[in-house]
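fold-stage: in
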Amino acid sequence: MRDFDKLSDFFSTMIILEPEKIKLKELQLLVKWIAEMGISPRSQARIISGIRSFFNYLILEDIIPDDPTDLLELPRLGRKLPEVLSIEEIDSLKSAIDLSKPEGHRNKAIIETLYSCGLRVSELINLQITNIYFEEGFMRVLGKGNKERLVPVNPQVEKDIKWYIEHSRIHLNIKTRHEDYVFLNRRGAQLTRVMIFTIIRQLAEKIRLNKTISPHTFRHSFATHLVEGGANLRAVQEMLGHESISTTEIYTHLSNDYLREAILSFHPRNN
């Protein structure tokens, strides 16, 4: 409705109030007007998306014959580099966990799994015991679009998850249909996304971390540390479950030192 209000306000100044009279040329003037208001490109794109939805509705209701927003260009959005934690910061977050509390070892296993396996928060809360194969060193993860992938499990993840399952989780009164989920709350039910965000925020506050972090920050850190360590970008793409390698390529922009080293090491003129 706020997007529609901007559309209405702009065209009321031009005395064009009938939607069928609005053409691409007028909408381009609207986009220019929005940009001159000092709104960020990302917010501009969202406003234009809302306006497109309005005209799509008019098409569906047979109020207008053609959609004037078809050729309307969105502002260019720069890729925002994600926040990344150092190994020392991740270790500090883990060290801040009070292991004397019932949820202590669970939270420790959560942090280690997020970082060492690069899971999305939805993948973490839906992780099931029957999908972890410690002997083979893999876990099966259900990602976006119900796509399955195998993610390597390192010895630290194995140690933390096993300790939690064998010493903490075993004492819970687990609810029906929640028996196979790895991470549970104190009532024996599957954890929520919000709870994972809360755990991480509280740990960040505890160590006075001067960064805005979320569960996804550990995924970014996982990928960045792999790429900086020399991991093949195609392998990182597979482990993250990215549809396109262009999504994974953002991690090559996080470290100028890594790029410089890669060029110096592999370009024939430097050998």
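fold-stage: in (second)
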Amino acid sequence: MKVPARFSASSTAQRRSSRRSLSHIWLLSLLALGLRSAPAYAQSAVVLVGSGSTVPAPIYSRWTQEYGKRNPNLQMRYLPVGTSEGIKQISHGAGDFAAGEAQLTDKDRKEGSLIELPVVLIAIVPIYNLPEVHQELRLSGEVLAGIFLGEVKTWNAPQIVKLNPEITLPNLPIQVVNRPAGKGSNYVLTDFLSKVSSKFRAQIGVTPSPKWTVGEPAERSSDMADKVKNSPGSIGYVEYQYAVKGGISQAAVLNRAGKFVKASTPGMAAACQAAEAPGWKSFSASLSNAPGADAFPITSFTWIYLRIKSTDSARAAALSDFLNWIYTDGQQYAGQEGYAELPPPLLAAVRKKVKDLQ
């Protein structure tokens, strides 16, 4: 796809760099605000500051509202800057926590003294815009891999027709929309596609920063939803709740049991059950392509990334209070915002881990 001069690679890179710099300044400003109030923790507000993926941004926004109602002296703010940037920020000591969908590397854990804990379940769904197709589209991981590798180019390609024999598919070019580097949704999608396609695994691999060979980027999850919704012939991928609230068509995806499944809260829970039971302690486990007839195959945890040690006892106490809240009262808002709560056995295990950290 030809990119107009005003959207050249260099200008795009400059805009992204500028956004990252502004985000870092904004994050540090919020952190400074919270730090100024830390010595008077019992009398004045402590503002916990987090940054990371746009995928869980709606749940963190809801948590900001609901958690803030409990105690005016304890508040939380979240800046959606992308998973990789969030990990970078918390590793460098900026903010109190980060959030995202990429598993921490051994280097992240060692050099940044970080751990990750699951907070809710999310699903990344293939979304598409085919105005003349009113039936539910079916796609397999192999076909999705072919589309995002640029090998399946039209909507009436034989690979898609074979999965949808009852649908008259248009002879229309597929317009791919993807996410730029550093995004948690990239990580979840590439994790799934790498499991079901050896070619995708060899060419792209599991990463929050894929080197896409085809497609037009969308910076945020909301941008992805808007682009697909307004571009006939397009396909992209977005967190489940963005598709639902935006009224965008979602494809049913072939799961490991050979069943085409649309994303749903029960489908996310089924994937987690299949991957985590009976131990319920693999807090960094991949949930994609899990076994089970009802499991949605592009399911993942969204994690909160935390520093193991804190030198500020007031902020540590405030963070512990926030963690205890999201693993009790805070879970109820997951379903309301298009996510899925952690299953009770896993929730109990995470609560124990949080207690051990305090």
